[in-house]
Write a structure and sequence with these properties.
By secondary structure, this protein is of the alpha+beta class. About 35% of the residues lie in helices and about 20% in strands.
Length: about 550
């Protein structure tokens, strides 16, 4: 057979079309969304994968398999039938229920070395449609969703996503790709708490067979701050406000210090272990569970969090005392820590350094606090304006290499780093400032390959194997060129990545410059954030040039 896959327009509902010699079929997959206001008296499961399979031409034979595993595939589970309801599985407090509209006798249970599995073999003809539901609950009583309401759940979910997407004000040529990225970011938002995960996957390698395999299923304050800011730019403020509330609650124990990452419930103790029984994606080991980056000092986080609050502040005024205290405290931490070395934005597991990007983001923190203090009449226990001047002097005197005529990756060091591309994007300098332009040119020359940009020189992170080009770096570069008024270069660097997007529109963390193979965790929030910001910057430039209506 041949297949194609894409989302229904303006939704997170996935459709896969199959075509073979005997017929044509469509499989629709979704997580049903319940709106309490429109369905106040109905019980829907909190977590359900609903699949709707339809044959639209001819007849096709299908196979259904269900293999439930616990402990990341280490252990199998026992299955049992519940009369005509379906097949159930319990793992402690976790309950799974499989229901289908197939005849119950079609579903066969068989034993494997890792427990039982479900198998079914069936044929559907033109016009036939079946429903398959796998629901999950870790609280009693479990809700068993009636399959006769499956179409209602589909139609309501379509309506929910399309109404959510309609809030986006973008009408330019990049509207579709911006919309898809916003929808991807929304799926990274953990609704019960407001946290935003960096990616929903773990250990997808940054090079096939390599060991840069990290667990991204946590809330990085940097990524979450970028995410909320990007969603605000396309009309979604509720997610940003929810994240702020989560941040206030989560950082109480470490305030005014910020931890790099937390889990979605706000817990700070994140261990890292290895799933030694797992082979890894295409034999890329180790498979990691948890992330020790939680113990690192990364000073740029403060700048990103404060900058996000700066952009959100006008939408939440009046600002309560608790929030004001929280933000001023983050500034206190910057005032105390900015002269220390850290692990930097790329979370190197080598010795800490005085990374230039970290210093720039400390400048951002003080710059935004200075503006907030003036606008909101705050009294601060430090002078953010004076500190911003001091940090800038350090950057210009120690991070700029006069012989190489570039800003460098760390103070008093000669190496480049693509994180320097953000300098005009955060307002540190203009995008056409000579020192920045010289740095930008050298980054393209030294870190570019086949239209893609690496984060840093190979081997400088302590790993011997190569890695892919970092998708976000292309979007940073495109946005910087757009801000400088260079439309041709902006579109060139943007399209080098956007043309690699599959029909789903989801972007990975990295790309192999040789064959454009996706690498790293997927979908990556960082990549979609960069895409939105770059696309909006290009559209703003097109408006200025009169190429699209304002």
């Amino acid at each position: 057979f041949q297949s194609q896959q894409a989302y229904l327009q303006d939704t997170n509902i996935l459709q896969t079309s199959f075509e073979c010699k005997s017929g044509r079929a469509v499989l629709t997959d979704l997580f049903p969304v319940k709106d309490i206001e429109s369905h106040p008296n109905e019980f829907w499961p909190d977590e359900e994968i609903l699949r709707i399979l339809e044959v639209r031409e001819g007849s096709i034979e299908f196979t259904l398999e269900l293999l439930l595993r616990s402990q990341y595939g280490r252990c199998g589970l026992q299955l049992y039938r519940i009369s005509d309801w379906g097949i159930k599985c319990d793992d402690g407090r976790k309950h799974f229920l499989l229901q289908t509209s197939l005849p119950n006798s079609t579903l066969k249970l068989s034993d494997t070395p890792l427990g039982q599995q479900v198998n079914a073999r069936f044929e559907l003809r033109d016009g036939d449609r079946i429903f398959i539901s796998l629901s999950y609950s870790d609280e009693a009583p479990s809700v068993m969703p009636p399959l006769q309401c499956a179409l209602d759940r589909l139609h309501h979910t379509v309506s929910y996503w399309q109404n959510w997407s309609a809030l986006c004000p973008c009408q330019g040529p990049y509207r579709k790709i911006i919309q898809r990225s916003a929808l991807a970011l929304k799926l990274l938002n953990f609704a019960p708490s407001g946290a935003v995960v960096a990616a929903p996957t773990t250990s997808l390698p940054e090079w096939i067979g390599g060991s840069r395999n990290w667990d991204y299923r946590f809330c990085w304050l940097r990524d979450a701050s970028f995410t909320t800011r990007a969603l605000m730019r396309v009309g979604h403020y509720d997610e940003a406000k929810s994240f702020l509330q989560w941040l206030i609650q989560t950082t109480r124990l470490t305030w005014p210090r910020l931890q790099v990452l937390y889990n979605v419930y706000g817990e700070a103790k994140i261990r890292e272990s290895r799933a030694t029984w797992a082979s890894g994606f295409r034999n890329s080991k180790p498979v990691r569970l948890g992330n020790l980056a939680s113990t690192q000092l990364q000073l740029d986080v403060y700048g990103e969090v404060i900058d996000s609050f700066y952009h959100l502040a006008e939408y939440i005024e009046p600002i309560d005392h608790e929030t004001q205290k929280m933000v001023i405290g983050f500034g206190t931490a910057v005032a105390q820590l900015w002269e220390q070395p850290d692990q930097g934005i790329w979370e190197f597991r080598t010795n800490p350094k005085h990374y230039t990007h970290s210093k720039v983001m400390c400048w951002v923190a003080m710059d935004r606090l200075s503006k907030l203090a003036r606008r909101l009449n705050w009294r601060l226990p430090y002078n953010p304006g004076a500190l911003a001047i001091k940090i800038r002097h350090t950057i210009e005197s120690r991070a700029y290499h006069p012989l190489l005529n570039v800003y460098t990756r760390a103070l008093n060091e000669p190496e480049l780093d693509a994180s320097l591309l953000v300098m005009p994007l955060v307002g540190y300098c203009e995008a056409n400032e000579p020192r920045y332009l010289a740095t930008q040119t050298q980054i393209i020359h030294q870190l570019g390959k086949n239209g893609l940009i690496y984060r840093y020189p190979q081997g400088s992170d302590g790993f011997s194997e190569p890695e892919g080009a970092f998708t976000l770096c292309n979007f940073w570069l495109a946005e910087a060129f757009a801000k400088a008024g260079n439309l041709g270069e902006a579109e060139k660097w943007f399209n080098a990545v956007s043309c690699c997007l599959p029909p789903s529109g989801l972007s990975s963390e990295e790309l192999n410059p040789e064959n454009r193979e996706y690498l790293g965790n997927h979908p990556q929030g960082f990549s979609h954030i960069g895409l939105i910001n770059a696309a909006l910057a290009i559209e703003e430039l097109l408006e200025k040039k009169g190429k699209i209506p304002t």
